[in-house]
Amino acid sequence: MIYVCPLSQVKDTINKLTPSHLVSLLDPKSMIGTPPQVHRDRHLQLSVNDIAEPRDGLVLPGETHIRAILDFVDGWDQRAPMLIHCWAGISRSTAAAYIALCHLNPGHELNAARLMRAAARHAQPNQRLVSVADKLMRRQGRMIEAVAQMGPGEFDMEGDLFFMPSKL
Fold first, then answer.
1. Low-confidence residues in the chain, pLDDT < 70
2. Has this prediction a pTM greater than 0.70?
3. Total domains in the fold of the chain
4. Helix (H) or strand (E) segment spanning residue 118
């Protein structure tokens, strides 16, 4: 299973689920250390801002971030959950979870987006992360189109914990 939550729920979620892998997508100033329950080499820390266009002083998601996500997912044996979080659990983390699902299930971009929408009404995957992943993974716009078909997420200041199976 792939779980997604906001930063405020990371500690409780780790205690409850004991995930083997953790992905943190936070701005550089907010990045957290590796929780004691997670092995250091199983914590991917991506210092990136939640933006879709370049802005002075902020870190724009790019190919390096996507390659790191894909490599990290490749190293996950799926015996225990993977937890992905960002600040609010709405944009960067949902994009990373969507990218992970698409990577694990080639050709199921639309199914992955529909599954995410059903699991999380608040999900609004970061467009930049998705578009860079689509290009890098050679999905020919299918990931971008599937996320567009999800429509905007319901407005919320912070998302709730949700999960999706890693195999569709």
1. none
2. yes
3. 1
4. helix 109-119
